[in-house]
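$ ./design --mode recover --in tokens.txt
reading tokens...
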């Protein structure tokens, strides 16, 4: 075979085996496996009531989430990092096209007042989930390419343009929660790349201004914020979900009411197997079960950043930190919103919540993260 041959999926380090970080691999595997077990427990009786079959939601998650996610995640693991860096802009542009397709009749559609889904027959996909990953990869490539050059034209302006375009696409849907996650991860990535302090302060100020503008344009967001501080202002309306989530978590006590025995998931707590799954899981397994899940995410964050410290390539390091921040921050926001620490965000709990689009993209992110961990020295 000629030396000049090029491969899209060429394994790196053919001269000697290179393995991903085994701690990170073990923690990631535990998170994914635990997520399937949690969904099986939380959704079984709920599925029987809604569909007449015990494992409808679990089977759907396995068929349209886990299996394609593992396959695409493995392909991402095989993809050379230099090729991934080169493809980061095409991937982001492809995602932007998908975000526009949600507004087209017969392809996209309105669900609960928002345009977030693409429908092709029985298949559906949420492009904003993919945007979380592709935006991180492109921002990592952009910041890595600038190196130590911290002039405004070379770093801040292109960075703000990308975030601005992403913001417009998400506001049109609207999907403010996803915008918040991407914006926060983007700002933290910019900070971790070695930004001047005034750049960071400027972006934080701009973020606050955008938030105030969004509240001004849609006053219902202000009422949601008021209910966050006092759920009893509207206990049967905007404060209903957090009230029922807290009741469920409190009912679990230390040991929980038992697997599959949650009361709140039967028509009481909205979105019991997706956005609110942490509250149902805490009700069934109690404080110890909830604490174990939180510990898994903290271990994932700790090990990922330990690996990042040993990576010399700027793109690989920033991409790893970006993927880690996305998964961990989204998990903390989801669990925090169910316990009243944060306002309700309407975002899934990574690896745990029911939803094929989210799980597929999260597994692709894991594949990239494990690939990068091979670069740790």
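writing sequence...
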């Amino acid at each position: 075979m000629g030396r000049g041959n090029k491969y899209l999926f060429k394994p790196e380090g053919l001269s000697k085996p290179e393995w991903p970080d085994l701690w990170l691999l073990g923690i990631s595997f535990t998170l994914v496996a635990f997520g399937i077990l949690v969904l099986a427990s939380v959704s079984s009786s709920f599925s029987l009531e809604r569909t007449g079959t015990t494992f409808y939601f679990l089977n759907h998650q396995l068929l349209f989430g886990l299996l394609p996610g593992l396959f695409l995640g493995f392909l991402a693991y095989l993809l050379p990092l230099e090729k991934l860096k080169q493809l980061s802009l095409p991937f982001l542009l492809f995602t932007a096209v998908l975000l526009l397709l949600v507004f087209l009749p017969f392809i996209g559609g309105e669900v609960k007042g928002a345009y977030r889904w693409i429908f092709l027959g029985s298949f559906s996909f949420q492009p904003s989930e993919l945007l979380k990953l592709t935006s991180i990869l492109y921002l990592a490539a952009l910041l890595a390419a600038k190196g130590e050059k911290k002039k405004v034209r070379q770093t801040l302006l292109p960075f703000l343009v990308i975030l601005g375009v992403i913001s417009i696409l998400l506001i049109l849907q609207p999907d403010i929660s996803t915008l918040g996650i991407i914006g926060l991860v983007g700002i933290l990535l910019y900070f971790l790349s070695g930004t001047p302090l005034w750049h960071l302060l400027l972006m934080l100020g701009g973020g606050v201004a955008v938030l105030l503008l969004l509240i001004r344009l849609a006053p219902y967001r202000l009422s949601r914020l008021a209910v966050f501080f006092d759920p009893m202002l509207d206990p049967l309306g905007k404060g209903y979900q957090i009230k029922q989530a807290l009741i469920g978590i409190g009912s679990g006590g230390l040991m929980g009411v038992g697997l599959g025995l949650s009361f709140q998931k039967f028509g009481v707590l909205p979105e019991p197997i997706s956005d609110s799954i942490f509250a149902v899981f805490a009700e069934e397994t109690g404080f110890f079960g909830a604490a174990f899940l939180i510990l898994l995410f903290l271990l994932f964050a700790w090990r990922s950043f330990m690996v990042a410290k040993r990576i010399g390539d700027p793109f690989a390091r920033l991409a790893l930190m970006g993927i880690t921040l996305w998964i961990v921050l989204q998990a903390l926001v989801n669990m925090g919103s169910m316990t009243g620490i944060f306002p309700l965000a309407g975002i899934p709990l990574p690896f745990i919540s029911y939803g094929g689009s989210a799980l597929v993209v999260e597994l692709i992110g894991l594949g990239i993260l494990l690939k990068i961990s091979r670069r740790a020295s």
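exit 0
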